[in-house]
Amino acid sequence: MDHKRDEENGLDGNYNSVVETEHMKEKEKEKENQEEEEEMSVERIFEGKEVPSWREQLTVRAFVVSFVLSVLFTFIVMKLNLTTGIIPSLNVSAGLLGFFFVSVWTKFLDKFGLLKQPFTRQENTVIQTCVVASSGIAFSGGFGSYLFGMSQAIAKQSENAGGNEEYKNPAVAWMIGFLFVVSFLGLFSVVPLRKIMIVDFKLTYPSGTATAHLINSFPHSSRSKVGKYFSFSFLWGFFQWFFAAGDDCGFAGFPTFGLKAYKYKFFFDFSATYVGVGMICPHIVNISLLVGGILSWGVMRPLIETRKGDWYPADLPSSNIRGLQGYKIFIAIATILAVSHPLRIAPLLGAHLLLTMILVGHKFFLKDQIPTSFAIGGYIAIAAISMATLPHIFPQLKWYYILVIYLVAPTMAFCNAYGCGLTDWSLASTYGKLAIFSIGAWAGAAHGGVIAGLGACGVMMNIVSTASDLMQDFKTGYLTLASPRSMFVSQFIGTAMGCVISPCVFWLFYKAFDDLGQSGSEYPAPYALVYHNMAILGVEGISNLPKNCFTLCCVFFGAAILVNLVRDAVGRKRAQFIPIPMAMAIPFYLGPYFAIDMCVGSLILFIWQRINKAKAEAFGPAVASGLICGEGIWTLPGSILALAGIKQPICMKFLSRATNARVDKFLGA
């Protein structure tokens, strides 16, 4: 998917480790040449060895393990979606756990002489591809963003003028149908470009490359690391459950830096999941999140609160879009949208045109090629089915809106896949936002522009997100000598799994937690409200914003563009020291508490690298995967307990001395 992805996906960028001294340009060029030679040596890792055919790589046990891991990872991604919206790249974790489960399986069978086919790197790659494709639907399906943003629960929070808000409540049937008609197009949109992007231009696709290196050199001791930290994380989640009987109860409400700081969401909430996420995300991402949290909740929010009664009515609750809520949501949106400004997108569009010209007459030479005619025919056929079907699911989304999206989507998919190959950042949600504003404005408020915009966002996001995921998988397959055809089939099957698993998992959350999507709840689904409000802004303009909010949005939009341009200009090595605006924007809405968790994870990894870099690089992904997956899978029994009406027995809450005295006095009375 994992995802990772921007914003929600999105912060799954993977950058080189920090260098202590600058090298001269000649040395930089020399290092780049060495890296190319290293990649070529990896490509030849199986030279002289028999590689299974593409059919032999697609085993029954691979898809059984893929299904189990898909359910696990979908719960993890769904939890992240509905809490903070930050989803790291799970490629490495999927490959690692796939290796763990199948190697245990094969070792068990081998003991009894029942093992007929050894476990290969190519089979491991198939598992990783299938799991990432399946769990990725939990992100691109919009369960924490555009799809849940259509619901009545979110629409009520938007404070839409007149109280006639548009909404479409979730239901398993239409969600599965929607995903099946929009999730496969991305698979066909960039297949003809795979050789150009991976072989000829040698785009790095950092997550895909890292996963391939991990698969090619799995240490057997990784198994014990995954199992140990998985168990610890699961038991820690179980232990915390007993103390969280009410709002602000439990370890997640521990005022680490004092009650005043806790009010502004500066605290460590003891989340093993986000400590693990912090170990996977690059240091600069975690630092950017913390800087954004300090800027927004430590500086901006207290200053805006002093303007209460002037900039916005004093009697408005903090959740009202015409009050504090409006500032934090739309400043975050403006900062995020700056990532897709024309100065950054234009070069990619130009590159697309250039590569399209180069592609004419070019023949693929890789084994098990996927015919271009098959890709084009598949895209056209699924697009036709989608245009006929989607207006029945969303009457506001007319067939000609969908046609326009499908005409421009391949270009957007290329741009996203190309940019992801360079930076490891998927901007799927950014392209989705462009669809919200363009289709929403075209439809207009009187003709269901909000639902039309959100539906269009879903169509666009699924195409561009799947395209970049597939190209990452092609890169992994290229470096492990897995067949492109087996990669495509695995991605196709994984996508089909995700179209069923993700809606069912979301439905479990939806029914288990009555306050799902409510600000301040355990699962606030922050981006659902962000997306709904973006759709309103697209059809109604800026009249809903509080005083000076638009000015602040412009300031932050301009500042984010400037910082992005500087990051692009100085090169990857120096950019490691410049905060990422998109990452900085996320705490504006959520607060900095999760950034503190992630920085703790980053600090653990940093210290580990200083003590023993080889072990940190070898076992860091295993430890992080165990921490993420253990607490993530606890969500399943936790949700079942909630559905069964079994409540936590203890509320552990922290009060000031004065408040505690009043409580004692009241209870004594």
TrEMBL record:
Coiled-coil region list: none
Keyword Transmembrane helix tagged: yes
Region: Disordered, residue numbers: 1-41
Sequence intervals crossing the membrane: 58-80, 86-105, 126-151, 171-193, 229-254, 274-300, 373-394, 400-422, 434-467, 487-510, 549-566, 586-608
InterPro entries: OPT, YSL-like
Any one of the GO CC terms: membrane
GO molecular function ontology, one term from the record: oligopeptide transmembrane transporter activity
Xref: NCBIfam families: OPT_sfam
Top-level taxonomic group: Eukaryota
Main location class: membrane
Name of the gene this protein is made from: YSL7_6
Record localization: Membrane
Residue stretches of biased makeup (Basic and acidic residues): 20-32
Family label: Belongs to the YSL (TC 2.A.67.2) family.
Keyword Ribonucleoprotein: no
Protein name: Putative metal-nicotianamine transporter YSL7
Keywords: Membrane, Transmembrane, Transmembrane helix, Transport
Topology relative to the membrane: Multi-pass membrane protein
